[in-house]
Amino acid sequence: MRKKKNSRKKTVRSTGLRHWLLFFLLASFLIVVFTSSTGGRFGVFHQLTLETLGPLQGFFTKVSLSSTKLKNKYIALLNLQEENDQLRLELAKVREQLDEYSAAYSRNRFLETALEFKQQNSFPKSMARVVGKDPSFWFQTLIVDRGENDGVVAGMVARTSQGVVGQVVQVSDNYSKILLANAPSSAIDAIIQNSRVRGILKGAGEQGYILHYVLKNAEVKVGDKIVTAGIGGVFPAGITLGTISKVHAKRRGMFLDIKVEPAVDFARLEFLFINLSEEQLVIDKMSRSSVFGE
Q: CB-based contacts of 51: which residues, under 8 Å, 6+ apart?
């Protein structure tokens, strides 16, 4: 019973203290409000109240300012993200336009070079667009949009302003197939321009060309230009084929191992010219008559 009475007394005391503390805080608050509104001054009690409530007000003020700053930073980050997304879209559009301008510039440069080549060379020619490629290693060919209706026949030479592309091997009404000069099945009579040394230039696919049958004592060096020899009447003399990139003398054998870098970039061909001269027609007729004669 005594324990219960004591606990009740403690509860009553704690409740009373809470009431007094609440009353004290409320009174202090009212005093501060009253003082602020009247402009009067109080003594020690007022100063004590200010010293007590001042830190609390400062704390809540800091919390409020921090919350405001955090909110502003979050809004700024959202705006920054939107700006970044917009800039990314604009950058993608600019890059796309730049690619289009670059392609147009490259095509314009090619057409200027092609026009200059056409004006400088008097032989009749037909400009053709590459519409297909055969990726096989041995028979590397191109399909172009010119055929018999345009005067193209098998055996005609295809070239660009840089040099020899290849030879027409098959023709339909509106399309032609061209065997590339760097195909392993291709062989061209060639000559080193400076020393006039002759050889057979064979295709090596992506490796370019290999110049065969040049003796070890021949005057050959890296950087020498290789042109068509004109033998056989298929390729006119003096058309650029490539440049010597490597010369190696084997221990055995009579001939040098000569690698040649093509003058034409076969991987990037878009347009070319087909020689439509009467000489080409005569060659084609002669080749056909020889086949039938056999």
A: none
